[in-house]
Amino acid sequence: MINPGLFKAVIVSFVVSLLAAALYSIAWTLLWRSMSTAPNERNRHPSRYRVADISPVRTSNTHLSQDGAFAASTQPNESPNKPTLGYQTNQQRNILLLATIALMLHSWVVIRQMGLPQGLLLPLFTSIAATTLTIVLLHIILCLRQPADYLGLVVYPLAAISLIASQVYGGGAPIVGDAVQMHVFLSLLAYAVLALAAAQAILVSIQRQFLSRHKPVGIIRALPALDTTERLLFTLLGLGFALLSLSLASGFFYLEDMFGQQLVHKTVLSCSGWVIFGVLLFGRWQFGWRGKKAVHWTLAGFAILILAYFGTKFVLEVLLR
To answer: What is the pTM of this model?
Structure first.
């Protein structure tokens, strides 16, 4: 016999998830329209835009240098000190407001699914929803500090899909112990930051392709200069690498079976991803790596991390169940 209280809780959770997904979808639609029309609107009505208190960045034409990276030169029709995406419109603030409301609903659903504060349950789809929750939170914080709203084009759909998917499957064994739970939270935070870095790498790659043709169109014209987007990429990579290092260190320190039968693949793949990100950051520091090399290494490292955590959980909880 179905428990009426449990059935009601499931229905409420599903409805709240749908509402949050709808708000994410509306925010994505408004963001797409805003970025598609931003350059033309900014040129026609410059007085409507308030410049945020950020460091100036260059709007640049770019061309491929001999080493395959992009060299930038200031556009003749714009001042070098004019911010490119530092303006904040009412529509952009409304988009962040919608995303924040969706984030609050998202948080309510995930916290109930995780069993907090009594315990910690993280089955596959709940862990994905928890990761995208953290990604949205980091994205909103980032947008308050610098122009990075364009990442919402990747972040919001993933958050909506993962939240709906989390309603399909639950269960799983509880995670016991404060130290182990801290290791799990560090891992989720590291994956979230590196997921933002991967999204940034994808947008940098698309931006490079359009700029290499000298015909930036649509939302590409609304993006910051290429050197600015690449700097943000490596900032996210540095933070994600530090968090991943803490996560792995806590795992080796607190877990006794990091190389046990069920964890060996996760451990080896996580360490491999850590090495890839470490080599990339070292190459940036010593040799100035950027461009395609940075994009490819970032996506390769993140793909390995996906296999390490979500791939392992998929095999254990779905295929071998």
So the answer is: 0.82
